[in-house]
Amino acid sequence: MLVSKDAFPVVSPEEMRVQREYTEKVRTILSVKYPGRRPKAFVHTYGCQGNVADSERIKGQLFEMGYEFTEVKEEADFVLFNTCAVREHAEDRVFGNVGALKPLKMKNPEMIIALCGCMMQQPHVWERIRRSYPYVRLVFGTFAVHRVPEMLYNVLRTGKRVFVTDETKGEIAEGLPVYRDRDFKMWLPIMYGCNNFCSYCVVPYVRGRERSRSPEEVIKEAKELISLGAKEITLLGQNVNSYGKGSADGVNFPRLLEMVNDLPGDFKIRFMTSHPKDCTKELLDTMARCEKVARHLHLPFQSGNNRVLKEMNRGYTREEYIELINYGRAVMPDLSVTSDIIVGFPGETYEEFCDTLSLIEKVKFTSLFTFIFSPRRGTKAEKMDDPVPYSEKSKWFSELLKCQEKIAAERCASMVGKTYEVLVEGFTKEDDGRLTGRTDGNINIDFEGDPSLIGSYIKLKVTKALNWILSGEAVID
Ligand code: SAH
Ligand code: SF4
To answer: Model-level pTM greater than 0.85?
Structure first.
């Protein structure tokens, strides 16, 4: 039996009621402003799935206020960018895209332009928006997601610019409406924030301290998703292994996973992201035991060198990482492992980088997300000596990609002739009319098929591997 303890503060019912009142007020204003039609909102999300989940809640609120959604900025009455601050490149893209909105705003002066997300938690960013982008009317940070009705009301009512970037304790807002883009692959946030302060990372500064949702709320939402037809539920958090820490009800991440697994239904469970320092054998055993949990572990190691790992403040060694993977594969022989890597951390030497290469060769990851170090304001690594030029880091980066491509090609070749169950996700990126399905291990296989298969599980036999792209054909049982 579950015991609710509310260890982490939630937004009060009174505050949620106030927001619902604002929803009604905005709905009335919009019906007068746009008679006979729903105004259109364009919402674009940068960055991680945490942002995607926030956007689904923002869109839920916009929908209740009377908006419908468009993929075409030019025809939008409301444009929102949900931003990412993890790397400079993501920030540059946001500034570029906000700049490109100026002519649209001039053509349509009624257009409301808004920015939210991690970048908006950084004072130097919102100062720049305030100064240099006067046509941006609304700016809000990651702690204000549930206050969209109030903020929009103030913009519409006063015509003034609204900036809500204040620090709060990061109360968890339960019961928000959610507008989901897909009805079979769904995101389920289980915790927010991060306490780890990896020395390169801005996330703890822009997302605040770790807060876990109560198990009751997680299970309630999981049941809702299943009843909506979810075929895959991904549990989300910056470090899901920390789930429940600091809460009195004793439900840790493995236990939560088991509880979701026990819910009846035909669906798979994924989760991300796991941190090696908190990834336990208990979690791996639980994965092995739970038939609905995909045999896929995303476990970012960042660097294969112990000195660099220490400087990164990651809290584990190369040897401990390898031991975890070995244990995972012992209890789940078909376990697929993916990871994140940073190349060119300040002070990293070529020899140290080679330890990353050797770890890749040893572990043989299914796929990798690789990044060149990007200094982030306010982090410890920003102030570290960084003597290796970017051009040199780019060379290391290419070397790393080549190494992984070879491993991926070998793995793909070994899959030819075998049959896998996949969830058919949609059309291929190539837009060639073919479909793509994802295996339990998070590997895509493309095939010819009827679009009515999208959203269902089918079996595919792999017929061809072209480097790391797999083709298959449906197997009829
Ligand atoms: N919470 C997750 C990931 C958060 S950010 C974790 O700890 O694994 C996603 C990835 O972006 C990180 O794993 C890291 O590889 C990369 N990243 C974060 N900060 C970065 C920086 N300053 N420069 C380059 N890559 C970075
Ligand atoms: Fe950033 Fe580290 Fe937290 Fe991941 S665990 S979000 S890399 S500080």
So the answer is: yes
